[in-house]
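Q: Please design a sequence for this.
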């Protein structure tokens, strides 16, 4: 029997095939989930010009210093400043300007009185500029004004190298007029499923068949890690189909080809054979459960990972082996899974001492994390994974962990805490 290799050794072998790559330019609007290769400094002030934060009237605060409900102050309305107005107007003392949110504050004004606090707040407001406006209270200098540079100063460091760009980061880049950013290469993964039993989502379920769920689970995990997924569909259980699918994968020059199923020792499991004949099989059994038959090597020089077919094994295999590979290509630390501690409310067993991942649910009671199992742990049973918020870990070499012991767990839900 081939030796089972430890998880960490398998991970290291996979990471060792990554070649360093140059960063590339990416349009800011396309950079969601890309990893910044450089620090980004602001070329502008934000907001770029001093503007109003309310719909109302721009004034010189000094003119309203005596305004009160019993002695209102009335000023002539000299101009209208809508949002988008390109001319920075000048306001003289004892004048007001009607101004809308986001419109540039006129020179000479230092505050905005919201329309609600004037005599102009009435139903059916008119677009016609009123001749006069009455104020009933004072306003502080700077009130309802957003000064240029309040949010970001020109030259300021706003996004650091290594940052995984979030939607709000893209918003900031666009607001700053930054058209392109240098980002790490995006990992390209060619993905296929294998098996004659697999159906497309729109096909009718017929006897002996099942839907190809792995493709969608794996695609989701890969895309969440920021990889580009090249879809190759399903390879049939023939040597020719497996070869044809792998050859198609090569055309897209992926960083890795990932398949699910067909890697074990069944008579129709051709994946291993084909890899051996056309590349290298570095390992194909890892000391873990679920997910022992994980194959890794290369097909005609391109890294290849064959995940098991059982849905939970494929899921765990992907997060244990493929996600670190993708993170490393993206220039991120490869191992970033959040580990938490929890006290067992039922025992965990691994009769042969393989490192095991149990689908569990952790709940917090009186400040303590309590872990239970989420049902049948068969590696084909996706529902217990759907119900899980963590994977409870039995380390290699340990055969049983009794109730009341503390275990480490991988959080599947980012809201889980220590
Ligand atoms: P195999 O590795 O081909 O022996 O497959 C192991 C188990 O996983 C079998 O029960 C398959 O039917 C199942 N399986 C294989 N591929 C998929 C898939 N893409 N989606 C869901 N289940 C699958
Ligand atoms: Mg199969």
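A: Design:
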């Amino acid at each position: 029997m081939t030796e089972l290799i430890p998880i960490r050794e398998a991970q290291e072998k996979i990471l060792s095939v990554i070649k360093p790559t140059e960063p590339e330019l990416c349009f800011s609007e396309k950079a969601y989930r890309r990893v910044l290769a450089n620090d980004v400094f602001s070329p502008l002030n934000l907001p770029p010009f001093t503007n109003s934060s309310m719909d109302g009237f721009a004034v010189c605060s000094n003119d309203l210093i005596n305004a009160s409900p019993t002695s209102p102050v009335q000023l002539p309305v000299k101009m209208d400043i809508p949002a988008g107005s390109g001319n920075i107007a000048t306001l003289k003392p004892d004048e007001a300007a009607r101004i809308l949110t986001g419109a540039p504050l006129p020179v000479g004004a230092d505050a905005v009185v919201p329309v609600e606090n004037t005599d102009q707040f009435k139903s059916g407001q008119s677009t016609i500029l009123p001749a006069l406006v009455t104020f009933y209270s004072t306003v502080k200098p700077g009130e309802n004004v957003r000064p240029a540079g309040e949010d970001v100063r020109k030259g300021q460091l706003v996004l650091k190298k290594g940052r995984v760009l979030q939607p709000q980061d893209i918003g900031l880049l666009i607001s700053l007029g930054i058209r392109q950013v240098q980002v790490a290469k995006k990992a390209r993964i060619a993905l296929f499923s294998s098996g004659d039993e697999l159906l497309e989502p729109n096909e009718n379920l017929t006897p002996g068949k099942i839907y190809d769920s792995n493709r969608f689970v794996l695609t989701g995990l890969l895309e969440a890690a920021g990889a580009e997924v090249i879809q190759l569909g399903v390879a049939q259980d023939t040597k020719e189909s497996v070869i044809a699918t792998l050859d198609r994968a090569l055309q897209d020059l992926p960083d890795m080809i990932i398949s699910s199923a067909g890697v074990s020792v069944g008579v129709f499991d051709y994946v291993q054979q084909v890899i051996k004949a056309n590349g290298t099989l570095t390992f194909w059994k890892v000391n873990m459960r679920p997910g022992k038959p994980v194959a890794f090597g290369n097909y005609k020089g391109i890294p290849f990972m064959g995940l098991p077919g059982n849905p939970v094994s494929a899921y765990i295999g992907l997060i244990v082996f493929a996600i670190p590979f993708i993170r490393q290509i993206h220039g991120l630390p490869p191992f970033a899974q959040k580990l938490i501690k929890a006290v067992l409310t039922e025992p965990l067993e691994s009769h042969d001492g393989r490192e095991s991942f149990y689908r569990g649910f952790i709940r917090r009671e009186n400040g303590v994390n309590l872990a239970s199992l989420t049902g049948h742990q068969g590696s084909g049973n996706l529902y217990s994974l759907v119900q899980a918020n963590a994977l409870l870990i039995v380390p290699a070499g340990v055969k049983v962990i009794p109730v009341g012991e503390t275990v480490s767990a991988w959080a599947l839900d980012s809201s889980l805490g220590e």
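Q: Thanks. Anything notable?
A: The CA atoms of residues 7 and 286 lie 6 Å apart. Residues 195, 261-262, 309 surround magnesium ion (ligand 2) (CB under 6 Å).
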